[in-house]
Amino acid sequence: MRADWYAQGVDAAEEVLPGIKNDLLLGKFKPRETDVAAVARASPEERREKAEQLRAIPEKKPKANNTKRWQQAYAAIDKSYEDMKEPKRADEDSAMVSLRYVARNMIECCDVLFDNFPDLLEKPDYKAQVIEVMQEPKQYILKLEEGDDFE
């Protein structure tokens, strides 16, 4: 239904501004779907103005480069791991700090992946694989809660 409304908006814009249809379909302008659909719903007097506004709507900003976020996450994991390897400095409290970092970083890494690759959660095949992959940490937590021996 939304695609139909969008198509009607593109056609209505083309009627009042010949050539805009091609620009929209080629991605020269990237207005929101709702703005394009609004052209078709506008009165004949307002259509030209609304169609011209489609050219003025700024292109969506690209997603932020998450490279720095990944680097920070990996640096924190590396630091936690190095801290745990040094017996002189490590005790149960520092181990808990490291464990918190690892848990938070796993969640942050997952969030970055899901932000950059939304199909991982939207497409059933990928979502099933994600759930399968996440079973290992889930089982680990269940084992902790049951008090099983980890040696």
Explain this structure to me?
The structure is a single chain. The protein has 151 residues and is mainly α. It folds into three domains: 2-56; 66-106; 117-151, no CATH class. Helix content is 75%, strand content 0%. The model has no long low-confidence stretch (mean pLDDT 84).
| Largest beta-sheet details | none
Which consecutive residue ranges, at least 5 long each, have pLDDT under 50?
A: none
The helical percent reads over 70%
Shape: elongated
Rounded mean pLDDT score: 84
Strand fraction equals under 5%
Helix and strand run: HHHHHHHHH
Number of DSSP strand runs:
0
Overall SS class: mainly alpha
**Alpha-carbon distance between the termini?**
58 Å
Radius of gyration computed on alpha carbons: 26 Å
Q: Please count the helical segments.
A: 9
Q: How many domains would you count in the coordinates?
A: 3
Task: Give descriptors for this structure.
9 helices; 151 residues; 3 domains; mainly alpha; single chain; 75% helix
